[in-house]
Amino acid sequence: MKISVLGTGMVGRAHAVRLLGLGHEVVVGTQDVDKTMARTDKDAMGNEPFSVWHSEHSSLQVMTLAKASEWGEIVVNALSGYSALTALRPLSAQLSNKTLIDISNPLDFTKGMPPTLSVSNTDSLGEQIQKALPSVRVVKTLNTLNCDLQVNPKSLRNADHDVFMSGNDAAAKADVKEILKSYGWTNIIDLGDITTSRGTEMFLPLWLSLWGTLNSPSFNIKVIAD
Ligand SMILES: NC(=O)c1ccc[n+]([C@@H]2O[C@H](COP(=O)([O-])OP(=O)(O)OC[C@H]3O[C@@H](n4cnc5c(N)ncnc54)[C@H](OP(=O)(O)O)[C@@H]3O)[C@@H](O)[C@H]2O)c1
Predict the structure, then answer these.
(1) 117 alpha-carbon distance from chain centroid
(2) Which residues lie below 8 Å from residue 200, measured CB to CB, with a gap of 6+?
(3) Integer Cα distance of 172 and 124 in angstroms
(4) Which has the closest alpha carbon to 195: 132, 140, 117?
(5) How far apart are the C-alpha atoms of 144 and 41, rounded to whole Å?
(6) Residue 33: which residues within 8 A CB-CB, separation 6 or more?
């Protein structure tokens, strides 16, 4: 399958490599290819500049966000939550009728750490993206986990843990479920329509506290029900 990954950060990189390894055709989308390739500084998380990472994965084509959105049959949104809505809105035509796997979280770092949620309670970034792009089949998933675990859930010592999915379109959710299964996910909880993104996005403050307390991003939650 042709899958475009919008985003050159650690999430975009993790998905691009994993999807390529699973045999998909993959491209990575960025705002400005030349500028992205010319960067020489590590990012805020200490990740290598994109060009250094790309030199080890040179079979991955890098395109503008518009070209990548046009190219892919399925598109992954791994853009910063703060910019996702503004960046995706002009891509409505290119993304029309496609499944958009939305991993973004509405984290606002403008007032420092810890980040706050730029939208919550009665709305969510997932819903805002769906409203802005009504012809796109948005499926929110994987946003409750660190990117390495997103694409390799079995890397946790106890691999019996859960991932959530929210979206309005049953066929799109079925497509996404297949991709999640190919990553190694077995416990996939379909929460319902895109409004259920509110809950998974509002999990982020707890995720950030656990990250600090456990001193590791490699953890997840397990829902126990009778
Ligand atoms: N890090 C994790 O493990 C993790 C886990 C769960 C969810 N998430 C979510 O996944 C998303 C990606 O996270 P990340 O850590 O990989 O990277 P990030 O630093 O949050 O985002 C990097 C991407 O955002 C794009 N971007 C930034 N400002 C932009 C703007 N004004 N217009 C268009 N694009 C813009 C960058 O574009 P360029 O390529 O042009 O630089 C880059 O591709 C975020 O929404 C994050 O909350 C992250």
Answers:
(1) 16
(2) 140, 143, 144, 164, 166, 191
(3) 19
(4) 140
(5) 28
(6) 62, 63, 64
Taking CA atoms only, the protein residue closest to ligand 1 atom 25 is 79
Ligand 1: nearest atom to the Cα of 44: 19
Nearest-atom number in ligand 1 for the CA of 12 is 16
In the chain, the DSSP E strands lie at 2-6, 25-30, 61-64, 74-77, 99-102, 107-108, 116-117, 137-141, 162-167, 187-192
Tens digit of each residue's pLDDT (9 = 90 or more) over 53-90: 999 999 999 999 999 999 999 999 999 999 999 999 99
Cross-strand partners of 61 = 27
**Minimum-distance ligand 1 atom for the alpha carbon of 7:** 43
Ligand 1, residues at Cβ distance < 6 Å: 7-12, 30-31, 36, 78-81, 83, 87, 103-105, 107, 143, 146-147
Distance of CA 55 to the CA centre of its chain: 23
Q: State pTM to two decimals.
A: 0.98
Contact 66, 33 (CB under 8 A): no
**CB-based contacts of 149: which residues, under 8 Å, 6+ apart?**
155, 156, 217, 218, 220
215: left (phi > 0), else alpha (psi -120 to 50), else beta? left
Nearest-CA residue for ligand 1 atom 9 is 104
